Every structure is written in structure tokens, then in C-alpha cells.
């Protein structure tokens, strides 16, 4: 049986638009009762990368999260809502700024911390995802400077509590190796349903300091791999060239072949994005063998650089660095590039967009060729 992906247009974050779109989505997927029964324990995980306001486009929009939570609660399920940001960021502040606390209070659902851990294959993961009857993933569609895109597969990385994410970045700094880790984690508890917030997406060097684009869609599927493949094509990329998608497909975790994906609702062509800004350089690394990536070293990799004029000295970058390469000296934040592993955690978690990425020589030459 072919994997099904629902594509629906949704141009704005208006309550009525979001509600009607979610109603259509569940109808096309055969009804919400296919995903939940009364008294089920349902864990809903949005993308809450940082303590960001909804309009910043970094986290899953609260209107979408609220509509999903409400529908499962109305079905008689016990709903749990949560995520675990990295970088030493305050979870309480994340829940407050992203609107999740307000949702929990209005709907009477439980907002959780990942304080119970289960270790599987050396990966510490939130116990709730194994205790629940249904796991619903609500990613925000964004580009990612390390993995090219973040959506259905990568949203599961949030199941690893914040402090342990840093350890994994340290252990697997190579983009392709890290992508395999992401797929491993995803495989341990695949979501029962993925609904992607693509009303406003992020391009460029995401997932936190990229370029916001009004893409105007919401996608839904039981198959996170298929949904990522559809999203890749929407921004002009071959799913096979994105390490997370190809690795998950090879492991039989989902479908990426267009002929084996049935599109419901709108067409694939309806969400094609013209000139969507991609991560500079890393959009092609998925096709390179690890030996070349290791050989290329500084010529290929992106280097995080702190823009001190924008830095607020909040310390998030220091706390997120797995090798402790960042320090405050003479009232400036400095990176020790002798030990920096180019995992880009500092760039990803900086709440003030005070870190930019400097490209290696090879990436600069590639940009010139493209022009």
C-alpha cells in the first residue's frame, strides 16, 4: 500500500482557517477516530526549539497546536503536551513565550517535562513517548544548516532531553553520521501521525536564524519519511540527497519514492516554492561520501562566528557547546576554533541571531559556480 500525504493550502494563521484545514485533513486521512480512542494517552510534541514568540517562525504555531490538542481531548483522550529544547534554555520560558502554557491552561491538558528517561541503544529518551498510546508529531517546516531540512524525522530528536542532545552532537559532529543518529532515534518510536506547520516556513540557514517565507500549507501523514520527501521536492531538492530521508528509506522506516506516495487534497505542484532559500553549502553535502567530508575539513565546513554587536551575553551558546569552546573574555564572547567541532549548536540555539555562519573556501567557490 502506498503512503498517503495530505496537502492542504492554509494561507494565514487565522483560527477559522487553521480549524477548517485540520478538519479537512482528518477527513482525508479517514477520520480522527483512526488515530485515537476514548481514554487513550496521547502525547503531542511540537517543535519548541527556543523561547521564541510565534511570529518569529521558529516554533510550531500555537493555533495549530491548540486545534490538534482540542480535537484529541474532545475524543476523550488524556492529552500530554511537551518538548525539550537544548542549549540550557529555560523550559518554563519556552512554554510561556511559545504559547504552550496558555494552551494547556485553556484546554486543561498536562504540560510536561521530560524528567523520566528511558535509555535505548545508548540514547536517553523521554519516557512519555513509550508510555503513551498515541504519539503525534507537530514539526515546523524549516531548513537546517546541518541536515538541510527539519520536519517529520528530525522533530523526533526533541525526544532526547536537552542536556543529552549536546552529548550526541559531540559524539557525532559529522553531518552524515549525525543524520544516521537522527534516524536511529526516530526509529525507536515512530509517530502515529505527523502534521507539519508550513503556513510560514523558514529558509536559508535555519533552524533559528533563517529567512521566513509565507508558504501557505499544512501537511499530514502517518509516514514521516514520505512527508519529508514531499517537502524536499516542494523546495526543489531530491529526497535521495537528504541524508535523513534516504537513510530512513533504506531502513524501511517510510517511503520517499514519488510513485509510492499518494497525494491527497491539493497537488504536489501546488506547494512548489520558487527560489526558496536553501542552506548555503550544506544542501549538497548529503551526496558526498564521509571520506570526502573528512578530507575536506576546513575547506568544506561552515564556521560559526559571533557578531558581538548583536550579542546579549545571555550564555546560551556557552551552555550549548559540547566541547566548551565558547567563553566570555574582556566583555566579548569568543570561540576557540582549535577545539570547535562545527556542530553549529551555538548557531542553532542563539536566541538573538548573534551568530552567523562563515563558509569554507570550497563552499564559497561552489556559490560562485552556481551563479
Give a topology summary:
Layout (H helix, E strand, L loop, with lengths): L2 E7 L5 H14 L12 E6 L15 H13 L3 E4 L9 H7 L2 H8 L2 E2 L5 E4 L2 E4 L1 H4 L2 E5 L1 E5 L3 E3 L11 H10 L3 H14 L4 E11 L7 E11 L2 H11 L8 H8 L10 E5 L24 H7 L5 E5 L9 H5 L5 E4 L2 E4 L9 H5 L5 E5 L1 H10 L1
Parallel strand pairs: 1-12, 2-3, 2-7, 3-4, 7-10, 8-10
Antiparallel strand pairs: 1-11, 5-6, 8-9, 10-11, 13-16, 14-15
Polypeptide structure, described:
- It is a single chain.
- The chain has 371 residues and is an alpha/beta fold.
- The radius of gyration is 20 Å and the shape is globular.
- The protein folds into 2 domains: 3-271, Rossmann fold (3-Layer(aba) Sandwich); 287-370, Alpha-Beta Plaits (2-Layer Sandwich).
- Helix 1 (15-28) packs across helix 2 (62-74).
- It has helices at 15-28, 62-74, 91-97, 100-107, 128-131, 162-171, 175-188, 224-234, 243-250, 290-296, 316-320, 345-349, 361-370, and strands at residues 3-9, 41-46, 78-81, 110-111, 117-120, 123-126, 134-138, 140-144, 148-150, 193-203, 211-221, 261-265, 302-306, 326-329, 332-335, 355-359.
Amino acid at each position: 500500500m502506498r503512503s498517503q500525504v495530505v496537502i492542504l493550502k492554509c494561507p494565514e494563521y487565522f483560527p477559522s482557517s487553521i480549524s477548517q484545514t485540520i478538519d479537512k485533513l482528518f477527513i482525508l486521512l479517514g477520520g480522527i477516530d483512526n488515530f485515537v480512542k476514548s481514554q487513550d494517552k496521547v502525547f503531542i510534541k511540537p517543535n519548541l526549539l527556543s523561547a521564541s514568540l510565534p511570529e518569529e517562525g521558529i516554533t510550531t504555531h500555537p493555533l495549530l497546536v491548540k486545534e490538534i490538542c482540542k480535537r484529541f481531548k474532545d475524543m476523550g483522550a488524556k492529552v500530554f503536551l511537551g518538548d525539550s529544547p537544548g542549549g540550557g534554555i529555560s523550559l518554563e520560558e519556552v512554554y510561556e513565550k511559545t504559547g504552550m502554557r496558555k494552551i494547556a491552561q485553556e484546554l486543561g491538558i498536562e504540560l510536561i517535562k521530560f524528567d523520566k528517561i528511558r535509555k535505548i541503544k545508548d540514547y536517553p529518551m523521554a519516557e512519555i513517548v513509550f508510555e503513551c498510546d498515541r504519539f503525534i508529531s507537530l514539526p515546523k517546516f524549516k531548513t537546517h544548516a546541518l541536515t538541510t531540512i527539519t520536519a517529520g524525522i528530525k522533530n523526533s530528536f526533541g525526544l532526547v532531553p536537552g542536556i543529552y542532545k549536546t552529548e550526541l552532537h559531540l559524539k557525532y559532529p559529522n553531518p552524515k553520521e549525525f543524520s544516521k543518529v537522527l534516524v536511529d532515534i526516530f526509529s525507536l518510536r515512530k509517530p502515529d501521525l505527523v502534521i507539519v506547520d508550513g503556513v510560514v516556513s523558514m529558509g536559508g540557514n535555519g533552524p533559528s536564524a533563517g529567512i521566513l517565507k509565507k508558504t501557505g500549507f499544512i501537511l499530514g501523514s502517518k509516514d514521516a519519511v514520505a512527508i519529508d520527501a514531499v517537502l524536499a521536492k516542494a523546495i526543489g531538492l531530491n529526497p535521495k540527497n537528504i541524508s535523513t530521508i534516504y537513510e530512513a528509506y533504506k531502513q524501511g522506516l517510510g517511503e520517499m519514492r514519488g510513485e509510492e506516495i499518494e497525494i491527497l487534497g491539493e497537488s504536489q505542484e501546488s506547494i512548489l516554492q520558487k527560489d526558496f532559500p536553501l542552506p548555503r553549502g550544506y544542501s549538497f553535502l548529503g551526496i558526498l561520501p564521509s571520506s570526502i567530508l573528512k578530507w575536506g575539513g576546513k575547506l568544506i565546513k561552515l564556521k560559526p562566528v559571533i557578531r558581538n554587536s548583536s550579542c546579549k551575553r545571555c550564555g546560551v551558546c556557552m551552555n550549548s557547546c559540547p566541547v566548551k569552546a565558547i567563553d566570555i573574555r574582556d566583555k566579548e564572547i569568543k570561540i576557540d576554533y582549535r577545539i570547535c567541532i562545527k556542530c553549529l549548536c551555538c548557531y542553532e540555539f542563539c536566541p538573538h541571531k548573534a551568530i552567523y555562519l562563515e563558509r569554507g573556501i570550497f563552499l564559497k567557490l561552489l556559490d560562485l559556480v552556481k551563479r
